[in-house]
């Protein structure tokens, strides 16, 4: 369900049943002359809309204003919007803290931007990961008081942890695309991989008549894009979502 359309009784049901609550996280960034600047975020939004047909999830309003950086193109006339990670982290902490206050305990942010470096982290995902940790510590301390972890009530912490119980799983950040695609799908920026994904998920975000206007190396493969390849990619993304959003 889209969070902004939910009634309080539906929110309470989602809390009681521990539905995954998912934030589509992304940027607005130049993706060549042939593709819309919202590609990275649209890919998450549209894939989640497909996933929602098969699973009970809450989809938060997407956050588009991440750290696109100006690495691909300067912003003038290109459309890239850059908000640095240091500015994002305080916002994200308040957002996550607020979601914990509401009662959600299975919160996920999903991002498709610079995720080829997800393990080490890049500015947007690092800001949201760090914010999630800060929000959880702050929330637990408010709810339980200082010394909550050292109290006798927590004596089974390590055995519980070994069984998978972990407060720090309350908020997680994931890449949209699995780390290992085993050569099954091209990972790129505005090339055949991303353009095919958009053709499958959101064809209005691609104008094939503009391929010839591209000059960047990273768009060289874009004209080879196809909806068929994109659909293969979408199937992989849905499989990945099934794994990370299973309850
Ligand atoms: Zn992209």
UniProtKB/TrEMBL annotation:
<dbReference type="Pfam" id="PF02633">
    <property type="entry name" value="Creatininase"/>
</dbReference>
<protein>
    <submittedName>
        <fullName>Creatininase</fullName>
        <ecNumber>3.5.2.10</ecNumber>
    </submittedName>
</protein>
<comment type="similarity">
    <text>Belongs to the creatininase superfamily.</text>
</comment>
<keyword id="KW-0378">Hydrolase</keyword>
<keyword id="KW-0479">Metal-binding</keyword>
<keyword id="KW-0862">Zinc</keyword>
<dbReference type="InterPro" id="IPR003785">
    <property type="entry name" value="Creatininase/forma_Hydrolase"/>
</dbReference>
<dbReference type="GO" id="GO:0047789">
    <property type="term" value="F:creatininase activity"/>
</dbReference>
<dbReference type="InterPro" id="IPR024087">
    <property type="entry name" value="Creatininase-like_sf"/>
</dbReference>
